[in-house]
Amino acid sequence: MKMSSAPRLLTLLLLSILFCATGNDDNAPDSIVSYKTIGETELKLHIFTPEGYETSDNRPAIVFFFGGGWKGGSPSQFYPQSRYLASRGMVAISAEYRVESRHNTTPRECVLDGNSAIRWIRQHAGELGIDPERIAAGGGSAGGHVAAATAITDGFEEEGEDLSIPSRPDALVLFNPVFDNGPEGYGHSRVKSYWKEFSPMHNIDDTAPPTIVFLGTEDSLVPVSTARKYKRLMEEKGRRCDLHLYEGQPHGFFNYSSREYYNKTVIEMDRFLSSLGYLDGEPTLQNEQD
Question: pTM of this prediction?
Answer without folding.
Answer: 0.91
